[in-house]
Amino acid sequence: MSFADKVIAFNRQLHYPGKLPEGFRAMNPYLDNPETLDVMQQFYRKYYNDEITRKFIVGINPSRHGAGVTGVPFTDTKHLESVCGITMHSAHTHEISSVFIYDMIAAYGGPEPFYSQFYINSPFPLAIVRQSKTGQWLNANYYDDPALFEAVQDFMIESLEKHISLGLDTSKVFVLGKKNAVFIQKLNQKAHLFDRIEILEHPRFIQQYKSKEKHAYIDKYLLTLSE
Questions:
Q1: Which value, to the nearest 10 degrees, does the dihedral of the CA atoms of residues 76, 81, 86, 88 take?
Q2: Considering only Cβ atoms within 10 Å of each terminal Cβ, which end of the chain, N or C, has fewer?
Q3: Is 83 within 8 Å of 47 (Cβ atoms)?
């Protein structure tokens, strides 16, 4: 099986079997929209149809407007079409983390060389939403509530182990987000998944709070990822 075949198989069987604390819900994009499954398969067959060992970049969990729609981490429908050449007809999304990631990928040399070296995913590979006091469902992170992290951590370890089995280098992992890294370190202490953890600022943080220094952060990403 190629790397693409393994990722597609992982995504097709993706299911969270446990319970979440009251007010939280997991969203599976592959069940919510049949086209998500189609464009996800197109993406991985385009960039991962080989048996190359890749380095692992770890996010938090998919957002509703990024991988929660396209099934591709840090990729909204805008960049899926404009950069990757894959059109999604049933949804149109713009996600700020995707803007930074694809600007960084462009600086790296484009999606072909980048994705031939790196695989991006999350320890909790499904979108999480939280109900607000007004009844709206908003993006949530797996670490937003101690009870939520307690509920999902075994599933997260199992998911990370499955990601590693796709063909990933475990000598070093690149974790996006300082708070995320705290929890990944806890999981790593428990399950001994990676030899070394490199921490990078999360794309959303950079876009939202450090946009004037964006090029410096892109340089930091390129330097850290290339070491």
A1: 60
A2: C
A3: no
Check residue 139 and report its DSSP letter: E
Give the tokens for residue 14. 């993706």
What would the pLDDT profile of 138-195 be if each residue is shown by its tens digit? 889 999 999 999 999 999 999 999 999 999 999 999 999 999 999 999 999 999 999 9
Q: Cα 198 to the chain's mean position, in Å?
A: 16
- Which pTM was predicted? 0.94
192-200 contact pairs (CB < 8 A, 24+)? 193/157, 193/160, 193/161, 193/164, 194/56, 194/170, 195/170, 195/171, 196/171, 196/172, 197/172, 197/173, 198/172, 198/173, 198/174, 198/224, 198/227, 199/175, 200/174, 200/175, 200/176, 200/224
